[in-house]
């Protein structure tokens, strides 16, 4: 892999000192930082999984490989190294000691103009929760259904185990050449999750509600939608660089959960999965993402804390703000 030009994406909670440290490491290895990810040989996404998902949004349709770098001494679902390991990881890349994991990328065009990208899902929801919206679903130009629901989402195989699963969708094996359409709390019980070829052009049109509706990409990027959103698989996949031989967070969690799953409440399993996929979140953010009552979220978090599967951390910017993240 050529490593002459590097684009650095700095996450929300990365300090100025940490950002300067990354720049120094990059320069020390003879690499030049560039402003355009499309012109880079590598994207360094510094932060947690939420920041890496934001980086995927920022690079758009570029297929430049992305290396996720976690802060501290831990790794996350999408990162394979910590900041302390960045220098040695760049040397491993030069020696060809790495793997590239490819994942489908969704491309959404909102009202014919604004473009969003996603690794997990693109969803349409009213801006106010617990509010119904009306919409029509078309696949390759054919009307599939008209529906009233809390929302609707289109997920990749990777995203099928995220929000789509909580909305009643199926688990789709990674590598399957399909997309999944999931109505969220439809008033019509006959509206079931729909599996379509990943070459399909999916249109969610005539979107209307008592409140403005939004297109939400990977739970982060939000765009107001007035008429429709067209969703398809991007021709260019997302390429994630893996350079560490240490067990992944997924493997470690699988071992922990196997011992705990027999008596773990379903809400705790769901919250754990969301933290695995989305990165650190507050209890309120978890409730908004999962649509679980805040009382249920607090109970689930207390169970996960008791079992040592998550830990509580405090925001460096606001000591009153408490986040929950996976225990390492």
Describe this structure in words.
- This protein has 328 residues and is α+β, with helices and mostly antiparallel strands.
- It has three domains: 93 residues, Probable inorganic polyphosphate/atp-NAD kinase, domain 1 (Rossmann fold, 3-Layer(aba) Sandwich); 128 residues, Sandwich (Tumour Suppressor Smad4); 78 residues, Orthogonal Bundle (Arc Repressor Mutant, subunit A).
- The chain is built from eight helices and 21 strands.
- The strands form five sheets. Strands 8-7-18-15-10-11 form a six-stranded antiparallel sheet. It has a six-stranded antiparallel sheet with strand order 14-13-12-9-16-17, with no helix packed on it.
SSE topology sketch:
Elements: E1 5-10, H1 16-28, E2 32-33, E3 42-46, H2 49-59, E4 66-70, E5 79-82, H3 86-94, E6 99-103, E7 106-110, E8 114-118, E9 121-126, E10 133-139, E11 142-149, E12 151-155, H4 163-166, E13 178-184, E14 194-197, E15 202-209, E16 213-217, E17 221-225, E18 229-233, E19 238-242, H5 249-260, H6 266-278, H7 283-290, H8 294-306, E20 310-314, E21 322-326
Parallel strand pairs: 1-2, 1-3, 3-4, 4-5
Antiparallel strand pairs: 6-19, 7-8, 7-18, 9-12, 9-16, 10-11, 10-15, 12-13, 13-14, 15-18, 16-17, 20-21
Question: Gist?
Answer:
This protein has helices at residues 16-28, 49-59, 86-94, 163-166, 249-260, 266-278, 283-290, 294-306; strands at residues 5-10, 32-33, 42-46, 66-70, 79-82, 99-103, 106-110, 114-118, 121-126, 133-139, 142-149, 151-155, 178-184, 194-197, 202-209, 213-217, 221-225, 229-233, 238-242, 310-314, 322-326. By secondary structure, it is α+β, with helices and mostly antiparallel strands.
């Amino acid at each position: 892999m050529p490593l002459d030009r590097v684009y650095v994406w700095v996450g929300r909670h990365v300090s100025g000192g940490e950002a300067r440290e990354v720049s120094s490491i990059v320069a020390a290895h003879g690499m030049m930082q560039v402003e355009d990810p499309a012109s880079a040989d590598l994207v360094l996404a510094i932060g947690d999984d939420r920041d890496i998902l934001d980086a995927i949004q920022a690079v758009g349709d570029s297929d430049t490989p992305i290396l996720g770098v976690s802060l501290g001494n831990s790794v996350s679902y999408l990162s394979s190294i910590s900041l302390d390991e960045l220098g040695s990881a760049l040397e491993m890349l030069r020696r060809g000691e790495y793997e590239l994991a490819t994942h489908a990328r969704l491309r959404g065009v909102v009202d014919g103009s604004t473009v969003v990208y996603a690794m997990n899902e693109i969803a349409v929801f009213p801006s106010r929760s617990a509010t119904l919206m009306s919409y029509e679903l078309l696949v390759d130009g054919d009307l599939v259904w008209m529906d009233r629901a809390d929302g609707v989402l289109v997920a990749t195989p990777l995203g099928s185990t995220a929000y789509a699963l909580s909305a009643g969708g199926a688990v789709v094996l990674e590598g399957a050449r399909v997309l999944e359409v999931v109505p969220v709390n439809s008033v019509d019980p006959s509206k079931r999750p729909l599996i379509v070829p990943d070459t399909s052009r999916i249109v969610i049109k005539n979107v209307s509600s008592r409140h403005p509706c939004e297109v939400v990409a990977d739970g982060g990027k939000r765009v107001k939608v007035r008429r429709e959103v067209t969703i398809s698989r991007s021709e260019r996949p997302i390429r994630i660089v893996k350079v560490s031989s240490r067990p992944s967070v997924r493997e470690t969690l699988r071992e922990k959960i196997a011992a705990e799953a027999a008596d773990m409440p379903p809400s705790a399993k769901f919250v754990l999965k969301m933290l695995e996929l989305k990165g650190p979140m507050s209890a309120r953010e978890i409730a908004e993402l999962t649509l679980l009552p805040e009382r249920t979220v607090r109970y689930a978090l207390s169970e996960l804390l008791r079992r040592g599967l998550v830990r509580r951390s405090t925001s460096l910017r606001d000591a009153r703000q408490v986040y929950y993240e996976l225990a390492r």
